[in-house]
Every structure is written in C-alpha cells, then in structure tokens.
Amino acid sequence: MEQASRTENGHFRNPVLPGCHPDPSICRVGADYYLVTSTFEWFPGVPIFHSRDLVHWRQLGHVLDRPSQLDLDGLAPSAGVYAPTIRHHDGVFYLITTLVDGGGNFIVTATDPAGPWSDPHWLPTTRGIDPSLFFDDDGTAWVVGTREKTQGRYPGDTEIWLRRLDGLTPVGEERIIWEAVQRRGIWSEGPHLYRIGDWYYLLTSEGGTARDHAVMIARSRDIAGPYEPDPRNPILTNRHKGREHPIACTGHADLVQTQEGEWWMVLLATRPYGGDFANLGRETFLTPVTWEDGWPVVGEVTESRRSPALTPHRPPAGPACDHFDSVRLSPVWNHLRTPREPYWSLSGGRLWLRARPETLAERVNPSLVARRQQHRDFAVHTALEFTPEGDECAGLALVQNDDFHILVVLTARGLELVRREAGTDRLLARADVPPGRVHLGVEARGQDYQARYAAPPGEWRDLGDPVDGRILSSTVAGGFTGAYVGMYASSNGGPGTNSAGFDWFEYQAL
C-alpha cells in the first residue's frame, strides 16, 4: 500500500507524504534520508521513513512499536505523541519527543533506524513540548524546547528554552533564548538548532497550527544567544493567501542539506476542500531553500516543483489490496491507543477482530485496525464474514475521534450506517442482508462519503444517502489529526463471543 511515484518530467508533487503526517523532522546520513512525524493517540507511534531522493519515501516501521515504549491508555484525542525530532550522531540515531498528558519529554535511541529502538529515557527536569536535539562541532549536545510562560501575558505566550546534555540528561543552567517574533504572537514552537558556518540558526514556528501558522528564523554567534531575527520574517507562511488557496497552514519545519549542497525544507501544511475543511489532516510537504545575505530564502510551497538534484530512487510500489497473508500487520495499519491484549490475529489469509466490549465512542483501545485517509477522492472495500449476536457489530469505520466518526457495520438488526457527531449517534440507514459473506465499501468524492454493500458479491447497492464528511475534519471535530479508515468490531459493552473475519482490505485513490 505504498504511494505511487511522485515525480514526472523532473518535477515532484506535494505533499510527499499525504494523509496525517504532521510535524515532520528529517536527518541525513550520507546519501540516506530519514523522516519522522507525529502520531498523537495512535499506536504504533512515530512512523519512520527512508528516502534517497527526498521525494519517494518508504516506511521502515515505527519508532515506538512496543507498549513498554508508549503508554497511551485513556488519553484524549490529539493528546499523546507530539512533534518528534530525529538526529544522527556518532553512529547512533536519536529521537526526542513529548508524550502529552503522559510522562513528558523523552529520548529513544537506535543504531538501525528500522529498529529496535530503546525504551524511553525520560527527561524529568524539562517541561513543555516540541523538544529538539543539537550536536555541536565541539562534541557538546543540547536540548531545546518550547513551553508556555509561567506568567504569560496572554494564552499561548510561549518561550524557547535551551539546556546542555550530559549523555541523555539535561545539566547546567537553563537559558531562555527566544519568544514569538510577532507582537502578541502565539505558540512559538517546533524549535530546531543548526550550525551553518559561524552562525547558530534557530528555526521556529508560531501563530498556531491553523491558517496563521508561519516559520521564523533567528541567528547568533553563540548558541546561548542573543539571537537576532531575520528582518524578513516570517520566512514562510500562507496566512496571506486567503481561503481559496489550495495549500494552507504552512509551518513546523525542519531543514536538511543534500550531499550535492542543496538545501530543502520539510514542513506541514493542509489541503482544505469542500470549504475550510481538511479531512486529510496536516501532511508533509517539501520545498527548496536558497541563501541570501546569510539568511534562508524559502521557496513557495506549491503542488508541483522541480525535484532535488538527486538520482530518483523509487521503492517498489506496494499493493492497493492487503490480503492479510503476512505473519504481521503492514506498517500502514494503526490502533487507537496502546493495545494491551492481542485483539486481532492473522490466520487463514484473514484479519480477525474480536468483538470486545470497548467502543469507538470511548477513550479506550477498541478493536480497530485503521489506516490514514490519504486522498480527497478515494474508495475502500472489504469482505466481511460475521454472525453478530446481541449488540455485536463489525464492519468499516471512518474515524476522526471518539465523538466524530462514521460506521458501516453488520449487526443482528441488519447492515447499519451510523453517524456519530458531537457525541451523539444517529442511524442513517439500515438494510437486510442474507447470512454469510458481505462486501462493504465507502466511496468518497470530496465531502460526500457514500456507503455501499454487496450481498451476494458483485451486486452493489447504496446504503443510504452520502454522509457529510466534514465531521471527519479537525475544523469540525477539533484536534490535530486527519481521518482514518479501517476495520472495526465491538460487542458494545456486552460480553462478546464472536470474531469478525476480514478477507482483504483495498484502498484506492480515485
């Protein structure tokens, strides 16, 4: 289920990682590039990608793939893992991030980016979010992060702090090195430090992660400052583009220099459609950077751009259909919160989900295996075998969070289409289907999500009218994530005796 090639005639298409891949961070090791993004309440945490050309990315797996690394129990939507930073130093990969509403800031390490990664080393003396690591030429290591001021002048009044590291432990004096550039600017965040020539550069974002998002930069001869701002700040923003522009919310960036000497920036942005609604969440984009008078000049973030001066390196394309014939789930699949028991299994060429009491409407770990929605227009199909009893259900789920989702599920009453909006469930349609296998599907055209079914196979019928997909956007539902779609089973509080068998799952861009 890898994305198709994204280059044509020497140009690439943005985003380079479509779907909910926010807060990208990147590092280069020789000719290899590694990139990570935020995952919030989804498990495994922090997908890690590899590329040789900055355009085509292959997922290696996840950094936080064990319950011992990542406790997401009971966390609210859009809590969990925020803004990881990946760096490489002396043969070791380092990843630092924050478990919001959990243990705070921590570091994990690995010698192979594909893993295994270590259990977390917690940083008890730091607070705030968006930590980043910097390894200086003299061998010293530093951690930098952002937090709200203890006596802020207004909500979102933040400061950037800096401390030296001894091994993985912060030591010495803490220094406040930065705050928002704009007057009454909010959420100065996502800081990264770089040493380029004789200057230390501090890259930050501010304005919040919605349409006022922007990237700022400052520099100093001393890592502890004082830092002077670029007189042309912000160096990147789309806040002035208006609501009709196809790319919005540009910000939270990281810089990388290629082995050919070019500079590039990875960043998050959104692609609203159907009005000011971005069901795909915040995605990873790529844009070039040049330098003038000692300051970076960032190219406009566009849907198509000249490719980096690197040899194209396209990984093999994965299948659009997962037949569940492997011994483990593909890394495209995710769970809500940390699974404490194996509620799923792969056997006989099927994915089996136990109908447990937990539901999508609770802040728990339900029987849900889901992947990101990555296209505005898409279709998903699956084949389900399930004999529900009592209040059991199984089928397809389109998820934003526990209060906003859409279900196409087989129940003892028949096949049902249910919309949950602002915490209230509404039955939109019901159809009788014969016992045995039923094929389920959802086709999205913009914000119209049409549920369909076929029983017997091949005789497709609409299940109700199209559902308004805007409830799957953070504009309506709040939070920081995009929509996910996948397979779901629940006994809705009852004891549950059955398992649902999914023969295959297909996701196609339309």
UniProtKB/TrEMBL annotation:
InterPro entries, per the entry: ConA-like_dom_sf, GH43_C2, Glyco_hydro_43, Glyco_hydro_beta-prop_sf, Glycosyl_Hydrlase_43
Q: Name one GO molecular function term.
A: hydrolase activity
Q: Where is the Beta-xylosidase C-terminal Concanavalin A-like domain?
A: 321-508
Keywords annotated in UniProt:
Glycosidase, Hydrolase
Q: Which Pfam families does this chain map to?
A: GH43_C2, Glyco_hydro_43
Record-linked PANTHER family: BETA-XYLOSIDASE, BETA-XYLOSIDASE-RELATED
Family (UniProt) = Belongs to the glycosyl hydrolase 43 family.
Protein name, entry field:
Glycoside hydrolase family 43 protein
> Which organism was this protein described from?
Microtetraspora glauca
